[in-house]
Amino acid sequence: QVQLQESGPGLVKPSETLSLTCIVSGYSISSGYFWGWIRQPPGKGLEWIGSIYLSGSTYYNPSLKSRVTISVDTSKNHISLKLNSVTAADTAVYFCARAQFGQVYDAFDIWGQGTMVTVSS
Amino acid sequence: SYVLTQPPSVSVAPGQTARISCGGNNIGGKSVHWYQQKPGQAPVLVVYDDSDRPSGIPERFSGSNSGNTATLTISRVEAGDEADYYCQVWDSTSDHLVVFGGGTKLTVL
User: Fold this and answer.
1) Which of A26, A111, B28, B32 has the fewest CB atoms within 10 Å, measured from its CB?
2) Which sign does the torsion angle of CA B67, B57, A78, B42 carry?
3) pLDDT at residue A102, as a whole number
4) CB-based contact A20:A81 (threshold 8 Å)
5) B96 touches chain A (CB under 8 A)
6) Which of A38, A108, A112 sits opposite B45 (nearest CB)?
7) Integer Cα distance of A84 and B70 in angstroms
8) Given CB atoms, is A11 within the 8 Å cutoff of chain B?
9) pLDDT score recorded for residue B96
10) Cβ atoms B64, B51 nearer than 8 A
11) A48 touches chain B (CB under 8 A)
12) Does A27 reach chain B within 8 Å, measured CB to CB?
């Protein structure tokens, strides 16, 4: 059974870099699939951040592209998210998710529980 | 960028049918996915590729997509269906790529 677990600091200072990890269990990311990061500000809707494939091929939300880096570490079986120059507007629950059939355009069928990140001094 | 428009709220009595719309320019030409999200929980995929259901999702959940509107239909609504619902598409015609609708709060009266 594939499971995803996000982890990282719950509090980040403005202008600093938000760094999160999504640990994948029950499946080797070396086998493929696209993996995505999605966030949800308190009381608001879902916003796609970006997606990555095993090969390192990435797609990013244009509104965040200049600040986002998503990477994959097959040795640790995890996907990472870095968002720099954060502001209060980046306060959100951050989810990682798997693309259902392995393609970037597929639905996200498996989600982590999410991790809340607050940007505040 | 591509925009998906959902009504903010839909209300329905138990046992009735709920229909949640998702509007977008020629959305009928795209594959639409639907997610259910309950408070404090991660989204759950309930319909993918317009009208397919993942295993474990009741047959009461169905989807359709044509023209400029996709619809999620929930038949015989139960109290446990009360949640936020989001539609999502992959838009290869713009650079925004993965797009979510704004979400619809389903209230079971």
Assistant:
1) A26
2) positive
3) 83
4) yes
5) yes
6) A108
7) 36
8) no
9) 64
10) yes
11) yes
12) no
A43 Cβ neighbours under 8 A, 6+ residues apart: none
CA A50 vs. chain centroid, Å, equals 7
Lookup: tokens for A105: 């355009």
Helix (H) or strand (E) holding A70: strand A68-73
State the DSSP code for A26.
S
Which of B1, B48, B92 lies closest to A107 in CB terms?
B48
Using one digit for the tens of pLDDT, what is the confidence trace for A48-94? 999 999 888 899 999 999 999 999 999 999 999 999 999 999 999 99
- Going by pLDDT thresholds of 50, 70 and 90, the confidence category of residue B1 is confident
Query: Is the pLDDT reported for residue B95 higher than 80?
Result: no
**Is B69 in contact with B4 (CB distance < 8 Å)?**
no
Beta bridge partners of B9: B105
What token pair was written down for A13? Answer: 């200072």
Is B27's pLDDT higher than 70? Answer: yes
Q: Would the pLDDT of B16 be above 90?
A: yes
Query: Using H for helix, E for strand and C for coil, what is the string for chain B?
Result: CCCCECCCEEEECCCCCEEEEEECCCHHHCCEEEEEECCCCCCEEEEECCCECCCCCCCCEEEEEECCEEEEEECCCCHHHCEEEEEEEEECCCCCEEEECCCEEEEEC
